[in-house]
Each structure stands twice: as structure tokens, then as C-alpha cells.
Automatic annotation (TrEMBL):
It catalyses: UDP-alpha-D-glucose = UDP-alpha-D-galactose. This is UDP-glucose 4-epimerase. Keywords: Carbohydrate metabolism, Isomerase, NAD. Its cofactor is NAD(+). It is an enzyme of class 5 (isomerase). GO terms for molecular function: UDP-glucose 4-epimerase activity. It comes from the Bacteria.
Amino acid sequence: MAVLVTGGAGYIGSHMVWALIDAGEEVVVLDRLSTGFRWAVAPEARFYEGDIADRALLSAIFAENRIDAIVHFAGSIIVPESVADPLSYYENNTVKSRALIAAAVEAKVPHFVFSSTAAVYGTPESAEPVTETAALRPESPYGTSKLMTEIMLRDTAAAHDFTYTALRYFNVAGADPRGRTGQSTAGATHLIKVASQAALGKRAGMDVYGTDYPTPDGTCVRDYIHVTDLADAHLKALQRMRAGGGSIVANCGYGRGFSVLEVLDQVKAVSGRDFPVNIAGRRPGDAVSIVANPAVAMREFGWTPKHDDLAFIVRTALDWEDHLGKRNML
């Protein structure tokens, strides 16, 4: 059997493809290459270029490959952009996911792993690490678009022979420790990516959006998870469903948070380089502080993070950014 990875040429998706191949899986990738790269797809994977809402293409993929699971990464992810252009996020993240889910049901694909987000929680009421039973109050169209897809998956699983796992990501960062792939998208807004570019002189400096939040240093606090650990969580979630496990929602994070300024200090320390930081106003849609309680993932699929170390996350991000610079010079 094969696993279909949507968005498999993108940042997290390309890491997932490698994780599946390393585990001996047959992999099929579907990506329209709007933000991903064909070179980022592992050569062992079978690649289709196209959109996840193209029903004719999906029918061909299911006819040509024995797909027993879909791991769905394709989508738009920038919170402020979603506030400025909400309808595009509902189209790309919700409407197109609905088309993919419908195609999966029609093709009798039994397992579905969904790339969701901690943005479904908004800013939690408590400072304690957030659990999956917390109130769902997204503060951006991005978070709402993901929550709507979770709801569609829940209802589809209740009506059909269909099992899903929705993984709510916290802040994903870093790169493959073996240097095979990493965050390569031009204009990416991930904090550690941007800070790595500043440290390596690819940017003149960077902005910090708001220093007046109710946190110890006034900047937003996030739980940063290494992308390789995240890919491993997807793999274990898939293995659990194949073994008969039911549908589930699980957080993916480490259970501790770092502020924006703490992350920048770490990037400067690991790189050994300083860079200018400009203090700007708050961005719309940013939650104040959110940290994961990952107990469900650890209990239900035996997920054990291997890279819970901010310095390691930063080091792999810097190494990949340096690799990209050399690649672009060739």
C-alpha cells in the first residue's frame, strides 16, 4: 500500500516524505508547487503536480496507486495574510480540503492524517499547557479554516468507514538533521527561519511584532517543535490507525514555551552573530501565549520527541539556511 502526501514538496510535507521512505513506505506526492519545490521531494516518491481539489487528477492518482492513507499538508499558513484575505484561506484550506476528503471517501481510502494547528485554540484562558479539550476560539481566519476542516473530518468519520487523526501543531522549526530538506520558501514568516536569515546576512535585520503583551518580556510565547519530531508524530499516528486505532485529535509540541526575544537570543548565541532587531506594532491575529500539553500523542501513539532542545532546533535551521545560500550560488 502507498501513502499520499499532499503538499509533499513543502516544508513539513517534504520532511514527512523522507520519514515515510525511511520507514520503508511507498509514497505518492501531490503538490501544485505554489510554495513548494520539486527538488525537495525525495526521488523515491512518485510525484504528481496539481491541486488537491482536482477531482479528475485525484481519481487518476487513486486508480494508479494503491493508496491506503492520506497525509494532508497542503494549505495556506500565514496568520496576518488570512486576516487580510480571509476568503482565500477558506477556499484553499477548507473548501479544497472538503474536495479531498470527498475523493478519499469515494475511493475508499480508510485513513487520513490532517495537518491542523494550535491556532484553533486562540489565546487559552489558563497559562497552563493547553489540552485538546480546551475551548476552541481561533483568533484568525487561518485558525478557523483549519477548525472547519477538523469538523468535516469528524462528521465524515461518523458517517463512513473512515478514520482520521488531526494533529494540532504548535510552532514548527528546524530542518532535517541529515541536510536533505528544510524551510526553503521565499518570504517565509516563521520566526526561526527569519532570524536565521538575519544572522547569516540574508536580511538587513528583522521585526518583532509587539512588546506589550502580558508575558514576562512583553513578546509572544510559543512552543517550538522540531520538524523531524513532528514528522515522526504523523508516522506514529498513521501506524496507530492501521493497527485499528480510532479517530483522534492530538497536540504536537514539547510542553514549554519561549518568547520571541528568547528565541532571537538563542539564534544569536548559536550563530555567534548579532543582527538588528526593530520593534514594531502587534500583528492582527497573533495569540499571546500558547504551549502544548502533548500527553495524548505520547499516550495514544507512543510519540517520544527526540529533539526537545531549542539550540538544536536553531542549529539545524541555520545549517539549512547556509546550505540554501550555497545552493543558490551554484
